[in-house]
Amino acid sequence: MEARKNNANKYIQNTIQDYILKNYRNNITLQETARVLSYSEVYFCRLFKQYFGHGFSKYITMLKIDEAKHLLTNQDVTISSVAIAVGYSNSDYFSKVFKRITGKLPSEYRRGQ
After folding, report:
1. What gap in Å lies between CA 86 and CA 101, rounded to an integer?
2. Contacts of 8-13 spanning 24+ positions with Cβ under 8 A
3. Is 53 helix (H, G, I), strand (E, B) or coil?
4. pLDDT tens digits, residue range 71-112?
5. Helices (H), 1-113
6. Which span out of 2-6, 24-28, 89-93 was modeled with the highest average pLDDT?
7. First CA to last CA across the chain, in angstroms?
8. DSSP state at residue 76
9. 105: exposed, middle or buried (C-beta count within 10 Å: 0-12, 13-18, 19+)?
10. Which residue from 77, 64, 86 is spatially nearest to 107, judged by alpha carbons?
11. Residue 71, exposed/middle/buried by CB under 10 A (0-12, 13-18, 19+)?
12. What is the DSSP letter of 73?
């Protein structure tokens, strides 16, 4: 019985993660994701925090910043292009969020690589 519950939990977690990884660049919302995956917002919010250890918005932001770090290792890609690639339409806002999370501006992070 416990193994079946663990398999169900893993399936739910993987389903959520797959959807997010495919769509996080499109500025998805908790409400939209809950609806697409057929959960109520309240239940999905609780489930998400249980499975991922963070709230939805923080998790999405961390995904974007992790991907941006990877993209910034390529010196040929502009910071504006990196911002757009990870789902930010405004590079100034991207830089502000990046600095809040990493403690460095994207240009500073790039120089340190």
Report:
1. 15
2. 9/51, 12/47, 12/51, 13/51, 13/52
3. coil
4. 999 999 999 999 999 999 999 999 999 999 999 999 999 998
5. 2-23, 30-36, 41-52, 56-72, 79-85, 91-102, 106-111
6. 89-93
7. 49
8. T
9. middle
10. 77
11. middle
12. T
Question: CA-CA distance, 39 to 35, in Å (whole number)?
Answer: 6
Q: What is the mean pLDDT of residues 31-39?
A: 95
Structure token digits, residue 46: 């609780």
Residue 61 corresponds to which amino acid? T
Amino acid (1-letter code) at residue 39: Y
Instruction: Scan for tokens 């109520």, then name that residue.
Output: 40
Q: Tell whether the model's pLDDT for residue 3 goes beyond 70.
A: no
- CA triplet 99, 85, 70: central angle to 5 degrees? 60
